[in-house]
Design brief:
about 20% helix; outer membrane lipoprotein receptor (LolB), chain A; single chain; elongated; 6 helices
């Protein structure tokens, strides 16, 4: 039909023998007509396959996402990001947490195992200080002697027998004047005390709490060869090289100039494997006071 109109125009131009229109003008007119015809017939293909003359006439695509706080559906063309993030969080929570621990060198591991040779031992903790005391240890039984000034005269005892298995503590006054610092009325008697208050931390207890050490030097302490080590929680220890017992302890604080000693304890006059069970047990003849 369109081409037929063009043909009629050409015939009409020739028929009318219009002089004012030359061949060039006629060509331009024909080109304009063709552009109008082609433009009027342009088509667009939408994403759903529909053909329209204007792209704005294409139908909008819709996807449905459930609202978090409502049962009403909302339209959106993206996934719910919050739901994806929550699922990822749940997966991460289910994953096992791996804690990397430092590995002891073979020398340090051997040092920590040397205490297995100890069956019993004796020591003074912080000898010469107001808080010092003497301890005898065999298995889970201890005998402790404090300074007489640690108790009021009316409550004074010479030694305390501690049984960690039974969680008991008994103070005892020796029955002879040469041995006791107790008043006469308390001589030869035992008195039940608080286990929690009287129980003490021994060098082997400290050893059980150590997870990692590094050797930083050697030293002679109390005429015994020792290895100086430091932990990753700012403690320094002097270990006896034969029995693996801690003989000196320092608590360190990191400063701008390095480490500063803020607390120190010593374990002196140590001897090993010379105690019998009676020495750390309440005497059979003790009378409960």
């Amino acid at each position: 039909m369109d081409y037929y109109i063009i043909y009629l125009l050409i015939e009409w131009g020739g028929f009318m023998n219009l002089k004012i229109l030359n061949k060039l003008m006629l060509t331009i007119i024909i080109a304009v007509v063709l552009l109008v015809i082609v433009g009027c017939g342009a088509k667009y293909v939408c994403s759903n396959g529909a053909t329209v003359s204007d792209p704005d006439l294409c139908p909008k695509s819709k996807t449905v996402v459930k609202s978090v706080d409502s049962d009403v559906d909302m339209t959106d063309d993206k996934l719910n990001v919050d739901e994806e993030y929550s699922e990822l969080e749940e997966k991460l929570e289910d994953e096992p947490v791996v804690v990397l621990s430092k590995k002891l060198s073979s020398d340090m591991n051997n040092l920590l195992e040397k205490h297995t040779k100890i069956k019993s031992y004796h020591y003074f903790k912080d000898s010469g200080t107001s808080k010092g005391y003497e301890v005898w240890v065999k298995g889970n039984k201890l005998k402790k002697r404090l300074s007489p000034d640690s108790y009021l005269p009316a409550n004074r005892v010479d030694v305390v027998f501690i049984d960690r298995d039974k969680k008991t503590a008994y103070g005892y006054c020796y029955d002879t004047a040469a041995e006791t610092d107790c008043i006469d009325e308390r001589m030869g008697k035992a008195f039940k005390l608080s286990f929690t208050k009287e129980n003490v931390e021994t060098p082997l207890d400290i050893l059980d709490s150590i997870n990692y050490i590094e050797e930083i030097g050697e030293d002679m302490f109390q005429d015994r060869n020792t290895v100086i080590v430091q932990t990753d929680d700012n403690f320094k220890y002097w270990f006896d090289t034969y029995y693996g017992l801690i003989m000196k302890q320092q608590k360190l604080e990191e400063t701008d100039d390095g480490f500063e000693v803020i607390e120190e304890h010593t374990f002196t006059d140590v001897y090993f494997n010379g105690l019998n069970s009676k020495e750390v047990s309440l005497p059979d003849e003790a009378v409960m006071g």
